[in-house]
Amino acid sequence: MIAVAVTAGVLMVIAIIVGATGPRVYDSQSYSAYNCQNGSHVWSPPPACIGFQPSQPGAIWIQEIDGITQLTRFWAVQLTPYSNNLVNNTIYNLQLSVQIYGGESSLLTNTTTTMLIECPAGNGACTTFTLIDQQVLENEFYIVQVSLLNPNDNIIGDIVYSVWRAHEKFSSFEIAIHLTYMVLSSGLVIFYLYAMRTLSLSLWTFEQKFLFILLIALVLSNNPFFGFQYIVSGWFFPFLNSVFSIVFLCVFSLYSMTILDKMRLEYTQPGMGPGYILKLAVIGTFGALGIALFTWINLRDRKDPVLGPALAVNGIQVLFYFVSTIFIAILLWISMLVVITAPIVSGKRYLIPKFVFTSAPISIYVFSVIIGIFAGTFGPLNPTALSVMYFNTLNNVFTALIAYSYWPKITGNQQQAVTGNEEEQRLFGDDSQL
After folding, report:
1. 236-265 and 352-375 helices, crossing angle to 10°
2. CA-based angle 237:241:242, to the nearest 5?
3. Best label site of 178, 225, 405, 412, fewest CB within 10 Å?
4. Alpha helix locations (H) across 60-99?
5. What is the CA 68 to chain-centroid distance, rounded?
6. Interval 37-42 mean pLDDT
7. Rounded distance, CA 70 to CA 91, Å?
8. Global pTM?
9. For the segment 287-309, what is each residue's pLDDT rounded down to a tens digit?
10. Phi and psi angles of residue 265, each rounded to the nearest 5 degrees, phi first
11. CA angle, 46 as apex, 29 and 160 as ends, to 5°?
């Protein structure tokens, strides 16, 4: 038991190290029109400033954006104009001409746009806005041309053009994690079914039946279809990703509540009493709303961060706080069950190892998820290499520990629906002893 716990801890430490040193989520590069050597946004003749003045007639910013693949997901251009030595704060309609070429000569977009911005007195930064948001990626490189249509107003001085794109290495990192764990978890399911092959389903213990459900939920959470969202545009695969993620959280919650109640109330099989129905109702509500939230965030935030964080949208913000409140209540409910079950099993020595080996992984999982929620990096919200690596590893290590706990015991030619060796039999006892 100690060796298994140490191995799980080592795996989580490795996941933290790999995630902390993983790739960035987004790349951005900024270009100042003035291009002053000291970073100033006040124009000075060369060699102090070697760029161009956007307010001059005929001035055009031209930029090539290359190395685009399906893993790029999107590219966007964000503008931050600067005041041109204004006396007062000014509300201004900035008119722009935008041309986008796919490749060297294929004109994709030729449009004009007007942005209402606020510029401070002096030479400070005006309102930042997203000018281009390209999500349909059909070319390997693009050429962007941007110019002012009302330069003679003399309101705008410098302009900083920021080019954003998803980091291809992060997309590959996510796909590799999901694919690796999907293969491992699928192998674990096959191995588990092989180990249980000689047992009739009616002889499976309650825990082993729940373990099979948890294993299937884990395979779905690892998502064999994860990479398709980079190939096929639209809502379906982000929705599927959300469903699979929420399903695992729901199965984890129901497993934790049920198994702790089983030890606390000392029953062999759970009944469909009011308490069990309440669990299903609360977890079902969280599941339905969680799928809606995760899908909304996936569609809104994962494609394009320069539009602003998803929580800046009022509807998403309300739903996020509501879903988070429900899930935190579920996690606190699980924590409470751990606390009130401890004194009950303390008087039964044969149950203490079982309780420790069951409650410890549950407690670590609950603590990690709560930290992730308050840090704003749980689920599809603001993913980082660390959060993606940690939580995916946590799901798999947690399920592997549960699988170790309830693996069938083989004695000679007879297979029993108890745990896998003498140490485990002492660890988990027998339902008849409860």
Report:
1. 140
2. 115
3. 412
4. none
5. 23
6. 91
7. 39
8. 0.82
9. 999 999 888 887 765 544 444 44
10. -95, -5
11. 25
Long-range contacts of 226-231 (CB under 8 A, 24+ apart): 226/174, 226/175, 226/178, 226/179, 226/182, 227/175, 227/178, 227/179, 230/70, 230/71, 230/73, 230/171, 230/175, 231/70
Q: Which of 426, 420, 398 minimizes the C-alpha distance to 407?
A: 420
DSSP annotation string for 119-188: E-SBT-B---EEEEEE----SS-EEEEEEES-GGG--EEEEEEEEEEE-HHHHHHHHHHHHHHHHHHHHH
Q: Which domain holds residue 123?
A: 28-166
Contact 316, 272 (CB under 8 A): no
Q: How far is C-alpha 323 from the chain's CA centre?
A: 15
Contact, 163 vs 77, CB < 8 A?
Answer: yes
Specify the CATH number for the domain of residue 262.
1.20.1070
**Is 157 in contact with 41 (CB distance < 8 Å)?**
yes
Structure token pair of residue 51: 């760029």
Which residue in the block uniquely carries the two structure tokens 């998502």?
A: 223
What does the longest C-alpha to C-alpha distance in the chain come to?
Answer: 92
Looking at residue 179, its pLDDT comes to 95
d(CA 31, CA 432): 72
Kind and range of the H or E element at 385? helix 385-405
CA 75/CA 426 separation, integer angstroms: 58
C-alpha span between 148 and 224 (Å, rounded): 47
> Given 166, 184, 200, which residue is the final one in a domain?
166
Q: What is 28-40 written as a DSSP string?
A: EEEEESS-BTT--
Angle at 246 between CA 72 and CA 357, to 5 degrees: 115
pLDDT tens for residues 81-108?
Answer: 999 999 999 999 999 999 999 977 789 9
- Identify whether residues 271 and 403 lie together within a single domain: yes
Q: What is the mean pLDDT of residues 198-220?
A: 89
For 299-336, letters b (16+ CB in 10 Å) and e give: bbbbbbbbbeebbebeebeebbeebbebbeebbebbbe
Q: Are residues 371 and 282 both part of a single domain?
A: yes
Task: Please report which confidence band the pLDDT of residue 427 belongs to, taking 50, 70 and 90 as the band edges.
Answer: very low
For residue 272, name the pLDDT band (cuts at 50, 70, 90): low
**Which structure tokens are listed for 275?**
């308490």
Interatomic CA distance for residues 127 and 179, integer angstroms: 42
Residues 123, 239, single domain; the answer is no
Give me the number of domains the chain comprises: 2
Tell me which of 111, 143, 166 is where a domain ends. Answer: 166
Average of per-residue pLDDT across 315-341:
90
122: domain CATH number? 2.60.120
Residues 354 and 411 in one domain: yes
